[in-house]
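Appendix B. Raw example, untouched.
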Amino acid sequence: MAVKVFSAFGVLALMFIMLFRYLNSNEIGSKQYQDNGRYYEEQAGDRDIDLASSSDMVPEGNQSEVIEHQYYTLGYNEKHEQPDWVTYRLTKESLQVPNVKRSDRFNVDPEVSSNSAKHSDYTRSGYSRGHMVPAGDMAFNKTAMKETFFMSNMTPQITGFNGGIWRELEETVRDWAYENDELYVASGPIFSDVTEYIGKSSKVRVPSAFYKVIVDISGREKKGIGFIMPHEVSRHSIYDYAVSIDEVERETGFDFFDDLYNGSSVESKVESEYETSEWPISQKRFKNRVNNWNNN
C-alpha cells in the first residue's frame, strides 16, 4: 500500500513540475517580443497583412539597384554592400498581430543581382549586423520576418549603438505607429570622408551616421519628423537628433515618399516642419537605454 501511495505521489509531483515548466515557457515565449510596452504571445502563424511594397516607395534621386521584397523596398548599393535606403509602411494592425518566432538566421539576398554581403563579412569585425527594417516591425508574418534578415537589409553598427539609441528609436517608432494607425518609414546609412571597411568576401563600408524618416499622412493632422544620429553610443535624448525631413533629404540627396502626397501642398509643411510634442517618447525607455542598453 505504501508503495502505491508513494508511486501516486511521485506521478503527481512529476505532473506538477511539467505543468509549471509549461506555464513558465509560455510566459517566457509571450515576453520574447516586448514592443511598445506591450507583450504579445509568440505564435507560429502566418498572418497576411496588407503592407505590400511598391515602386511608389522608391525615393527620387535613387541610383542604387531597387529590390522590391514583399513587405519593404530597398536600394542596394553594391559599392558599399548595404542599402542606401529602405522604405516601408508600418501599421497598428500589423503590431497587434501575435508575433511569429524571430528568425535570427541571416541570409544572402537572392534578389540582389551583384550578390549582397554575407553573414561572414561581419563575423569578428567588431560590428553588429544592424537592421534597417527592424525585425520587430515585421513580426506579424513568417515571410516578413525572414525578409528582414536578408543581408541587404544590414549595415555595420557598433553594438552599443545598435542595441542602444537605435533600438530606442525603433521601439519608439512602433509606439508612434500604434498611436497614429499608419506610418511610412525610411532608414539608411550616411557616410563621411573617413572610410573604414569590414568584410572577408565583400568590402562593407562602415557608416558615420544613420537617418530615419517618419511620415503620418493618414490622420487629420499630417505630420513628419526626421532623425540623423551619429554612429556612436549616446546618452542624449533621441530628440537631440530630431531634424526636419527636408534636412534628411538635403543630407542624403533623396526625396522620400513624394508619390504619397499626390501633388498636395501638404508635402511642404510635413517635410519642412516638425514638433516633438507630436511625437512623444518614453522617459522610462530612455533611462533604461542609458543605464542598461548602452552597456550591452
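End of appendix B.
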